Amino acid sequence: MDLKSAVHRRSPQNLTELEQFCKEEWANIAQSRCAKLVETYPNRLMAVIKAKGASTKY
Question: InterPro entries, alphabetically (predicted)?
Fold first, then answer.
């Protein structure tokens, strides 16, 4: 699950809640998810370069 979606599901009502929910959801991101993002970074970067900054499958 991505951070934006997880926070959106919680429907923060103000800036304080938004900050709190972001921190809580950030702490819930699995280490394996972070490791996968780091591992695939070169491929994602090359896709952006190839697309000249336009949308990619990522």
Answer: RNaseH_sf
Q: Is residue 34 part of a domain?
A: yes
Q: What is the pTM of this model?
A: 0.66
The domain tally of the chain equals 1
Contact call for residues 56 and 48 (beta carbons, < 8 A): yes
Query: Where in the sequence is the domain holding 15, given as residue range(s)?
Result: 3-50
Token pair for 13: 């009502």
Q: Is residue 41 part of a domain?
A: yes
DSSP state of 12: -
Tokens of 58: 């990522």
